[in-house]
Specification:
It contains seven helices and 42 strands. The strands form five sheets. It has a 15-stranded antiparallel β-sheet that branches. Strands 6, 7, 8, 9, 10, 11, 12, 13, 14, 15, 16, 17, 18 and 19 form a 14-stranded antiparallel β-sheet that branches.
Length: about 525
């Protein structure tokens, strides 16, 4: 018993000298310092986070503690943030070696390791597919290169700073512009984009917009992923999952007037069987294919009458049947080229329309032309009031120059094998005019809208690539900051072509840490990128 007295006395003396330690076990202190590290990194207080890591290491040395599994990963992040690259490399490798793919932070650790080590070789962007990581040659400094983590073939970039050993260096301004004159020839991909976590938005986000919209959900690798709820100021609520940035899976869309639409999305487009219930009591049921109604649809109305027929590529097609409560049955017809038509008259051979047909729409549009074995073929004419339009069909596909009449305007331009292709003009009844090119059925290039007003004509310029809107004006995207060996580093300010502003830090060419995004309508978003820290929910 006497041999134990010195140990007891020393323990009592230690507790008396350290009242805080007497109350808090060292392992609990470690957990607190790890939480403190999280908070400091979220505030971009790298010095404070580094001090918290130092205290953890001191506790471990003093008490021979086994540190939590995430310590080495978080230590690597802090080390890299203060510029201790070798320490960061050692810590991240310790984490990966100890836990491998089973580690909670495996994707983030792999991404950090990839940033520290950098690419194995300089792969030029020329000929690469969209979205790869590569080295882009500056258009104003031939032979000088910039690291591009998300290559877009239609963009060009200039740099007003220095170039050293073929890499952009120092402080300056990057200007990005769109070259929409021609589609580049894309070679087969030689580099696959990594599936590790990118230095982008990651974790749970709440996005509040100036118009009152509130969107809540998670980001993974900079893209929406998992369940999201989107609330609108008019009372509408849309709920469902995202997958890699696109709506994917079953969604329920509730609108402010009481309408409810339910059904699946695939890759951002409605796809599969949908039920659309309206507050008036009307119910529509049928299938979507790639975002457009396609196949048989049934529409039920409160007075118990139904309409049933086919859609093709988003438009009613062929014969529709209307059944009334009193037993009456009406039939109407729809013709190709997306004209809604009413009753049709003409011959049918072997169950297919064949020969000359006249189709009259309730709004007053009249379409005349021939069918060949069920498909419109030859010259078709459309008349509405004192206007005449139409064009040529070749075996069901529009071809050549067309004039398409609507009750509120007219569209004019060329078709090639059923797709709009070339320069089109759309004139509206309110005197608005739209002019721009199509390529293979999609808007491609600059579109100009002219709207008359009491102060003269107002013009809007929009730029499209393969049907996707990319810019609202022709001014370039500008970025201001520093480059080290061709890669962005430190604080950057980005002003894009649509008037949005983004501000935050880069590390080794990738976004890193707290970013603030303000769009042209003054909506503000902020969040922490994963290479800096995992954003708390």
């Amino acid at each position: 018993m006497r041999t134990m007295i010195p140990c007891v006395l020393s323990s009592l003396l230690w507790l008396g000298a350290n009242p805080a330690a007497a109350q808090t076990p060292p392992q609990i202190l470690v957990e607190r310092y790890l939480a403190e590290t999280d908070r400091r990194m979220a505030k971009r207080d790298v010095a404070g986070a580094s001090e918290a890591i130092r205290k953890i290491l001191a506790l471990q040395q003093q008490h021979e503690l086994t540190l939590p599994v995430e310590f080495h990963f978080k230590s690597a992040q802090v080390s890299y943030s203060i510029g201790s690259v070798q320490a960061a490399l050692k810590s991240v490798n310790q984490y990966l070696a100890a836990f491998g793919k089973d580690g909670e932070f495996y994707p983030e650790a792999r991404a950090l390791l990839r940033v520290i080590e950098g690419p194995a070789e300089r792969i030029p962007c020329d000929g690469q597919p969209k979205g790869v990581e590569c080295w882009r040659e500056l258009s104003n400094q031939p032979g000088c290169h910039l690291w591009d983590p998300d290559y877009q073939p239609y963009r060009t970039v200039t740099w007003n700073g220095e170039c050293s050993e073929s890499l952009a260096q120092g402080r300056g301004t990057l200007k990005w512009t769109w070259d929409l004159d021609a589609k580049p020839q894309i070679k087969p991909p030689v580099l696959e984009k990594s599936h590790d976590v990118e230095a982008e938005r990651h974790g749970y986000w709440v996005e509040r917009f100036a118009n009152g919209d509130i969107h809540e959900g998670s980001y993974v690798r900079g893209r929406r992923h998992g369940p999201w709820v989107e609330r609108y100021p008019n009372g509408g609520v849309h709920e469902g999952p995202y997958s890699e940035g696109n709506r994917h899976g079953r969604w329920v869309e509730r609108y402010p007037d009481g309408d409810v639409h339910e059904g699946p999305y695939r890759d951002g487009k409605r796809h599969g069987r949908w039920v659309e219930r309206f507050a008036s009591g009307r119910v529509h049921e049928g299938t979507y294919v790639e975002g457009k109604r396609h196949g048989r649809w049934v529409e039920r109305y409160p007075d118990s009458h139904t309409q049933e027929g086919l859609y093709a590529d988003g438009e009613p097609d062929g014969q529709w049947v209307i059944r009334h409560m009193d037993g009456r049955i009406e039939k109407s017809f729809y013709v190709g080229q997306k004209f809604w038509t009413g009753t049709g008259q003409g011959p049918v051979v072997d169950g297919k329309r064949h020969g000359q047909w006249v189709v009259r729409a309730p709004a007053g549009l009249v379409h005349e032309g021939a069918y060949l074995e069920g498909k419109p073929h030859g010259q078709w004419v459309t008349r509405y009031k004192n206007k005449v339009g139409g064009g040529l069909y070749l075996e069901g596909k529009a071809d050549g120059h067309w004039v398409i009449l609507y009750t509120n305007g007219v569209a004019e331009g060329p078709y090639v094998e059923g797709n709009r292709h070339g320069q089109w003009v759309v004139r509206h009844e309110n005197r608005n005019l739209e002019r721009g090119p199509y390529a293979e059925g999609k808007k491609h290039g600059q579109w100009v809208t002219r709207a008359p007003s009491g102060y003269g004509d107002a013009f809007k310029y929009e730029f499209y690539v393969d049907g996707e809107f990319v810019a609202r004006r022709s001014r370039p995207k500008t970025e201001k900051g520093s480059l080290v060996d061709g890669k962005k580093k430190g604080d950057w300010v980005v002003h894009d072509v649509n008037g949005n502003m983004e501000k935050g830090p880069y590390v080794a060419g990738k976004r890193h840490g707290q970013w603030v995004i303000r769009d042209r309508d003054r909506n503000v978003k902020s969040g922490v990128d994963p290479l800096s820290w995992t954003h708390p929910k």
